[in-house]
Amino acid sequence: MPYRANVEEFRFILDHVVDFAQVSATERFADATPETVDAILSGAGRLSEEVLAPLNRNGDLQGAKLENGVVRASPGFADGYRQIAEGGWVGTSADPEFGGMGLPLTLNSCVNDMMGAACLALQLNPLLTQGQIDALEHHASDEIKALYLPKLISGEWTGTMNLTEPQAGSDVGALRSRAEPKGDGSYAVSGQKIFISWGDHDVAENVCHLVLARLPDGAPGTRGISLFIVPKYIPDAEGNPGVANSLKVVSLEHKMGLHGSPTAVMQFDGATGWMVGAPHKGMAAMFTMMNNARLGVGIQGISAAEGAYQHALAYAMERVQGKPVAGSHGAIIDHPDVRRMLVTMKAELFAARAIALANAVAIDMARATGDAEWETRAALLTPLTKSYGTDTGIAVAQAGIQIHGGMGFIEETGAAQYLRDVRVTAIYEGTNGIQAADLVGRKMMDQGEAAFRLIEEIEEGAEAARAGLPDLAGAVWQAAESLREGTDALLAQQMTDRLAGSVAYQRAFALVLGAHFHLKAALAEGGTGARTALARSFILRLLPQYGALLAEMREGAGDLYAHNIESLAS
Amino acid sequence: MPYRANVEEFRFILDHVVDFAQVSATERFADATPETVDAILSGAGRLSEEVLAPLNRNGDLQGAKLENGVVRASPGFADGYRQIAEGGWVGTSADPEFGGMGLPLTLNSCVNDMMGAACLALQLNPLLTQGQIDALEHHASDEIKALYLPKLISGEWTGTMNLTEPQAGSDVGALRSRAEPKGDGSYAVSGQKIFISWGDHDVAENVCHLVLARLPDGAPGTRGISLFIVPKYIPDAEGNPGVANSLKVVSLEHKMGLHGSPTAVMQFDGATGWMVGAPHKGMAAMFTMMNNARLGVGIQGISAAEGAYQHALAYAMERVQGKPVAGSHGAIIDHPDVRRMLVTMKAELFAARAIALANAVAIDMARATGDAEWETRAALLTPLTKSYGTDTGIAVAQAGIQIHGGMGFIEETGAAQYLRDVRVTAIYEGTNGIQAADLVGRKMMDQGEAAFRLIEEIEEGAEAARAGLPDLAGAVWQAAESLREGTDALLAQQMTDRLAGSVAYQRAFALVLGAHFHLKAALAEGGTGARTALARSFILRLLPQYGALLAEMREGAGDLYAHNIESLAS
Fold first, then answer.
1. By its UniProt entry, which Pfam families does this protein fall under (chains A, B) (predicted)?
2. Closest CA to B94 of B152, B10, B162, B52
3. Which chain B residue shows the shortest CA-CA distance from A347?
């Protein structure tokens, strides 16, 4: 499974689709010059191709193992991780004060995209650390920052997120972990956490857990939760890993995929931790980390799609079956249905990536300018990036298997691994249903203002394209107009109805936005060429799905509750 | 993973949706009285619940193994298989002259549906034997029939299909296996076959291979292929398994799922075989088996969907997270998006099952009456059954994982197994793309006559429902009308365009047909109640997808070939 880092594709999207130039025009990101962008993209590309891609199959076949209480990573992962850390790729967008490169999150997203396409299981490790760095930069005390950030940014230590408990998954507020003040500024943290990705391992010298727990006087629900940093080894006076903390890995899960990423059940037995942020304000701090992580997980979906696409394309160009009715290559890539699948994969991949990078640009702009509009834009795009990115990952991996025919079901070809690995991305960091609830709930608390503003931009984009690409522009304009009307209808719905149609609305929004970016790409090449053909494929073949999706949204919950439990069970 | 056989559901579809009464009204199937139907359904249901379902997880965890050239089935499979055979479930619809029950294929399909929902990997074994029985009944000499049919029907021996070779998958005509006449009426068959499900095992005393091979004077391509029966052990004078034939299992595949079903690479080294059917007419005989098998594989998709649905429903009724905004159960089943997923799963499952059983009824009617119209109907429905049944299996299994949240990715819950097992059903017995090519190619060689006749019936059904269910009837009528126009457009397309839109057209057709059956079900309960709610969900939420699908079909291949290889690879 060779992987080729598609540096040109990132450069094109940055330059012509998501207006990255505005990010490098800010004072904060003035260092992100074209030369720096080139160096970052080609450096991360080389690492991904040469070091990480060769580890991917190992991670699947020989997953992480728990041996005598210690987690052993997959063969080669320790060295791969070391090269990620030494290259500075954990801290691409981290604060330079603590050793980070201080580059835009947009570039970091490109780096994560390449690393994930090469080896998703290993990429998850620095991704989690990046989320922790982000949370500490925003919420931790200066002391904690000074102690932990340099170690995390250099990759000497890694970070995890400890939210979920058996009874508290999507409902984080139901958690039972407790933290008792020890009187010396530290806390004794106790409880069991599940689904802790990279919860322990032997690829770095320390593992820092960000743990959500309740203080003795913490109210029930999410308002009574605080956040703590709980290291595996407590740093000594010099800041080096000292005595072992009172925490352990109870077990590792047997998962459908991502075998190279150890998923731990963690037990904290009065483990020493330090509070991050204010008492009872843990969810706010965690949300910083989660929003970052949601963008990151959306990118994971996209990167798996890239890997699966490249893998299927290579097979389709080699495999000969029958005489294709068109085309000139002679292999199955010339069969119309195989070609349709490949073009669909590539078109969805482009749309998902453009959405994610536009999301990253919005975050960077918000950070660089403090402009609340960028903040709002980023918040609106986050559920779209996460859900559409990961749905695309699954759909492209499914198509990749299908293109392989019978060989797709055989593990040796590697096609199935993409699906097995990417499947969880639609679940973790908030299921895609939770993303949709976030989109139609929290993100519409402004009465749709942010959504309407984005739809306005999409329509302006279509107007600008009307002269050169009338059919595509007309289709996108019409879709945006329907989305606007659909958004009006959504806002008029009761919450139960909104939630029932939320996933359909979320997908419709992503399709329209994806079409918008395709249109920009087509315009950028002058309305003729490969990108225009791809835009045409997306806009004329896939975009029309918005009609059925908005129809489903308008249905609301109505008939769903007409099914009683007995009838569903019969 | 308990499985509950849904006997009432089958009875309802038979009685009220696919008009099974016309089958039992024929002379040939006069034995299929309501009492017999009840006995068959409840007997197969009991076997599936009590014997087969408990084997399902074993088959996944401890797949079939090749040891010293012999395949060992998963723990418990031999006993499970014995009970299938002793119950007569291999030969439910086989010829009574050779020990079969002679019942309609429709009933056999219900039996297979239940057995597959309980344990797909084991069910595949009798499914293949049934295909072989069908091929022998139609094409074999009296001698071969007398020797093999009683053993296959009783389940003492099992059957396989040997078509695929490394270079000949979808392109069967590229096969290289050879058969040389030995002068005594038998042939020496040589070649390598791959993807041979249940190619060897220890659950029955003999394995009979139907092998496609070329005679010395066989023309290249599919017209020069003959069919041979090649037993693992050559029957002796008494018809008992005698000396071992010159064939062996080279290896077993490591697959994404269906671990309990051994998938063998078979090597035939001058193995003794006997011709089935006429020289060079092997494909015709194989098509009998394949059409039967395509219905059977469509049913496999449906049965996996049933298993995954029941499994997810049970979880959704138990798992509590947060406070649902509606409903009264308190568990996640009351969350609108979870309920939407469950209702969607159930609605698609019903549609797929109704299509498959209508297909089976058409086959039974063709056999019982010899009426060419039924033959044509069955041929038209086969690709719809196979593709929509298996696509539904995958979609429902995906949703089942999603409903489980993080637990869906953990193998112990069993949600992932449904997806891993069912994934191959969209590939084997002709990929769903091959089904679509069959639908828009071979099945439209009548200029769409059979399709238009079915669309006419759908419109008549909608007219009949207009008084009682005006909104649903109107939606179905409109969809059928669009399908008719779409079919006209399809017929006017060049073959490359047709093939490019074939999968979209195939799905649109299945959705419209599924809506038709939902409407019939709603009418049958008087337009109010659980089935009407389900019909409403399908028709108002899912059916609208036909618009985008037909739009994609109309696009044809046009832009697909505007992507050259370089642009696809960049």
1. Acyl-CoA_dh_1, Acyl-CoA_dh_C, Acyl-CoA_dh_M, Acyl-CoA_dh_N
2. B152
3. B568
Determine which of B11, B340, B344, B539 to mutate to test the interface with A (most A C-beta atoms within 10 Å): B340
Q: Is B518 helix (H, G, I), strand (E, B) or coil?
A: helix
Tell me, what amino acid is at A159?
Answer: G
In residues, how long is chain B? Answer: 570
Contacts of B503 in chain A (CB under 8 A): 337, 340
Tens of pLDDT, residues B135-174: 999 999 999 999 999 999 999 999 999 999 999 998 999 9
Residue A220 burial by CB count (10 A; 0-12/13-18/19+): exposed, middle or buried?
exposed
The reply to whether ipTM tops 0.90 is: yes
pTM for this structure? 0.98
pLDDT-derived band at B220, boundaries 50, 70, 90: very high
Please tell me the distance in Å from A55's CA to the nearest CA on chain B.
Answer: 20
d(CA B568, CA A331): 14
Answer yes or no: are the C-beta atoms of B336 and A560 closer than 8 Å: yes
User: How confident is residue B206, by pLDDT bands cut at 50, 70 and 90?
Assistant: very high
B99 — pLDDT class (breaks 50, 70, 90): very high
Nearest Cβ partner for B406 among A164, A343, A569? A164
Q: Running DSSP on this structure, what letter comes out for residue B552? A: H
Buried b (16+ CB within 10 A) or exposed e, A43-78: bbbebbbebbbbbbbbbbebbbebeeeebbbbebbe
Which of B495, B496, B559 shows the shortest C-beta gap to A536? Answer: B559
CA angle A296, A110, A150 (to 5 degrees): 70
- A63 to chain B, minimum CA–CA distance in Å? 14
Of A402, A428, A551, the CB nearest to B431: A402
Residue pair B6/A570 in contact by the 8 Å Cβ criterion: yes
| Measured distance CA(B33)–CA(B15) in Å, rounded | 12
Residue B288 predicted with pLDDT over 90: no
Q: Which residues of A touch B525 (CB under 8 A)?
A: none
